[in-house]
Amino acid sequence: MTTTNPSVARAHEDGRRGGGRRGGRRPGDRSSSVPPYPRAPAYLTYLAGKLSGAVVSLLAVLVTGFFLFRIVPGDPVAAMTRGMPTSAEQLATLRRQFGLDLPVWRQFTDYCGRALTGDLGTSYQFRQPVGELIAQRLPATLLLTGVAVVLYSALGLWLGTRSAWRHGGLGDRLNTGLALTLWSVPSFWLGLLLIIVFSVGVGPVPGLFPTGGMSSGTTTGPAQVLDVAHHMVLPVLTLVAVGYAQTLLVTRASLLDEMGGDYLVTARAKGLRDDLVRRRHAVPNALLPTVTMVFINLGHVAAGSILVETVFSWPGLGGLFYQALSVPDLPLVQGLFMVFAGAMIVMNLLADLAYPLLDPRVGR
Amino acid sequence: MTAPDGPAPSSGRGATPSSGRGAAPDPEPPSTAHGAAPAPAAPWTPWTRRRRSAARFWRRYRAHRAGLCGLAVLLVIALVALAAPLLVGDGARSVTDAPGTALEEPSGRFPLGTDQFGRPVLGLLVWGARVSLTVGLLAAALSVAIGTLIGVAAGHFGGWFATVVMRITDWFLVMPTLVLAIVLATVLSRSVWTVILAIGVTVWPTTARLVRAQTIAVESRPYIERARALGGGHLHVMRRHVLPNVLPLVLSQTTLCVSSAILTEATLAFLGLGDPTVVSWGGMLQDAREAGAVSSGHWWYLAPPGIAVAVVALAFTLCGRALESVLNPRLGVGR
Fold first, then answer.
1. Does the keyword Membrane apply (chain A) (predicted)?
2. Domains identified in chain A and CATH numbers
């Protein structure tokens, strides 16, 4: 499994350089002989470094967002008016309206100025400000992927811990095998199959769940909550099935790394029960990479469900991205691209900021 | 590794695998451990050593049953893909001259039924294997090549060069890969090469980071100092000493990359960003969805391409994990 975060790789490298095993001290431990952590100046330096890195990344996204969409072949105005009889004056008006008649550097400065004030341009397709469209669709995506990320992180953590604790056994092999298989399945395909089985119905089994959308739109109050939950079952199931493998494997590998630790022998020698050794000693030390995974997955909250939202016609950002692609509605694609990338950068920053709290060796 | 250098580059391998990331820490025959002149009775060429280490590698790989299964599946699928013109013929993918009628159920003539143009689904599946494997392998090769080049250069030169390069790498690493690939595939023209490019240039950063760490570990070993003292330049050190030690890691990384590249290819094709004139598994799923296979319950059209993608991706993952645990026993993936 590839690790998708620099910080995980960095944490691994640190662990190796530091002589392998971590000390027996748990992250939450504060005995009197240990200096209070994180030491303020070191933490501040670390903080400043990470913050400036994130700002540079965000600016880079801004610049990429502009130039990536200027290499597109063809005239966006021509593409927009395809199939509609338009005169030369109308084309010129449209071009002026979207600022396409200005030289590239002027377009760039205008674009930067507008983007910094939160104006992402106007969608060709919906004739509506991109920011407004995104704000409308954001809650649905946050709801769907937020629930899915929480569920599959918990599931992956639980199964990964069990797997590592009895590694090599039948349970471990079944667990890892199933996770790897589900991880190899394309999420959109799994979604389509679930729709066939549970929504359309196979043979005598009737359709149990709706085929798509977020609600039936006829209910209010508590009934509406249930209705939305009913619509969410299949998309969440798809996301969890495809997503939990990564958390499982990361947790398993990092716990296996801890399992030879002397401090576990000590914990057992003083008579702790097996599950206490696991819960209080081994797992907290192995948690760092898993926490990173959770943050990464939260960063994917925006982008991670493009396919599942498309398949289940969920009215979120992913579905909007698909609609924008099929035109292609460049301002909208551009705006969504920046939102997706920005979410990742912010979540990575949060993960970096959380490390020193979880592991005092980071950031010194 | 030419004659004058003799077995020197590998001596580090035999010595101390201190950083843990090195190649398999096997004790090598004493004649290679010292870089002394190969004197014994049998003529000792570099090829003897390579043959032996290949045999040793295979012995270890064989111990991983899942890896062997993956390899067997891949061999079969690769053979089927290569033999596609012989097995199903070109008629299977012709829209105008299709052998069956639209959306037939599975029968003796068409074991997996037909699509909306009357083409046999089984034939399409065989043709689709070619595209998936080609794109998967080439995209993974491209990304790993970029990653290795950048990783070795950053690890070797260090200093401000490495700082700048790794900043860029980190930046790519936090980009949502799929979104970037989709955007690239959107703004470029529709072709198989676009898909390869879009996947290749978005997934290299992980490799770059791994390779850089490994390069730094290798370069801290004494034989690199020896090579420098003997007058080896940058290029010599990187090509003859660093690269051979990094390659095992790169190999397992490539194998793991292929499975995600195949999944991404299917995803892009499903979103309609692939080459519409080529039959691919993702494209078949898109066709199936557009033909209403979901609402009418045509599972025989929808299920096979997805299973094919999953099987190939899983096979590559299993091979990659087996390779990884053979080559880097400390990573512990196979334990």
1. yes
2. 39-125+330-364 (no CATH), 134-326 (1.10.3720.10)
